[in-house]
Specification:
The complex is a heterodimer of chains A (172) and B (145).
Chain A: H1 2-14, H2 17-39, H3 42-51, H4 57-80, H5 84-108, H6 128-146, H7 154-158
Chain B: H1 2-27, E1 41-43, H2 45-54, E2 57-61, H3 65-70, E3 77-78, H4 81-86, H5 88-92, E4 99-103, H6 111-121, E5 127-130, H7 133-139
Classes of the chains: A mainly alpha (172), B alpha/beta (145).
Chain lengths: 172, 145
């Protein structure tokens, strides 16, 4: 009985819009920072992708051209609160793919840099800590995907109606 | 619900693709980066020795025929700049699919650089100059013929 109450309470807090808003802002900011390191370094990012030894130079250049903008648009969408679920869907898919690639690189013993937040070839090489870090991001993205969207969007700033915050005891 | 998700995902991916290519076009990056003029690399003795031992490069001797006959790096072709410009048979004997290392007497001579620059103008892209040249090679006691 008590166990059920605790679980219910955790679920209530987890699905609280403020928690959803904070997670959304954290994940959005992370992807905006990650994208900004790549947007102006397409050639360096192409080389980073080639270091994973999966894609041809042509496809790697296409990925290096488009991927930073996917990250940036999804990050901005999350921050502004528009397309929340679709952004979370794209980011969780990307994160799962990235993590698989990192595990593969570690399995093959490739001594390469992640290219996630910096395109500097002398930055830290990949390690299992990166898999752990990505797992946390995946958990955040999946949380945003599964939980209902919150209403603190850019549009709500211009909405004259007051937003009623649900209390912790209310059902979402 | 699924349809809306599909539409939103398509919109985000489509917009990212358009903006990505448009930005790289404006910023002249990636596919739209201006093609760089090919340049040659300058090699030191250890680099030249490595390529010689691996047999992964063709050595080109830019000195005169007389100096070449007195001694040269094993396997090297004699390509003095003047004769290279005059005779098409010399340039046709130089393959395109291997790294070319040009050398001359040593640090005082410039013919190796001139030959390398000429080769680049003739469409060779994989060219290096062994700066220390013949003097450094013989001083190190490396093989000659």
């Amino acid at each position: 009985m008590d166990k059920c109450r605790i679980t219910d309470r955790i679920t209530l807090y987890m699905t609280h819009p403020v928690v959803h808003f904070i997670v959304r802002c954290i994940l959005g900011s992370i992807f905006i920072i990650a994208a900004l390191s790549k947007v102006n370094a397409v050639d360096e990012f192409t080389q980073t992708i080639l270091n994973y030894r999966i894609l041809s130079p042509l496809i790697a250049t296409v990925v290096a051209t488009v991927l930073p903008w996917i990250e940036l648009l999804c990050g901005v969408s999350l921050l502004l609160g528009i397309f929340q679920r679709s952004s979370a869907f794209i980011l969780s898919t990307l994160l799962i793919v990235f993590t698989i690639l990192i595990v593969r690189a570690l399995y093959l013993g490739l001594s390469i840099t992640c290219g996630c937040f910096s395109q500097d070839p002398s930055s830290n090489t990949l390690g299992w800590w990166k898999v752990l870090e990505n797992s946390v991001y995946i958990a955040l993205a999946v949380y945003l995907l599964l939980c209902p969207e919150d209403q603190f969007t850019i549009f709500s700033l211009f909405d004259k109606r007051n937003i009623q915050l649900p209390r912790a005891n209310d059902h979402y | 619900m699924k349809k809306q998700l599909f539409i939103e995902v398509s919109l985000l991916l489509g917009l990212s693709t358009i903006v990505g290519f448009l930005y790289t076009y404006i910023a002249q990056q990636g596919f739209f980066a201006p093609k760089k003029a090919p340049t040659f690399t300058v090699l030191n003795l250890s680099d030249a020795k490595k390529y010689f031992e691996e047999k992964s490069a063709l050595f080109l001797d830019a000195r005169s025929e007389y100096e070449y006959k007195l001694g040269h790096i094993p396997g090297a072709l004699n390509v003095p700049l003047y004769e290279l410009k005059q005779s098409s048979s010399i340039s046709s004997s130089i393959p395109h699919n291997i790294f070319l290392i040009v050398y001359c007497d040593g640090s005082e001579c410039h013919s190796s650089f001139q030959v390398a620059e000429y080769l680049l103008t003739r469409g060779y892209t994989n060219v290096g100059v062994f700066y220390g040249g013949w003097q450094e090679w013989t001083n190190a006691g490396l093989p000659i013929e």
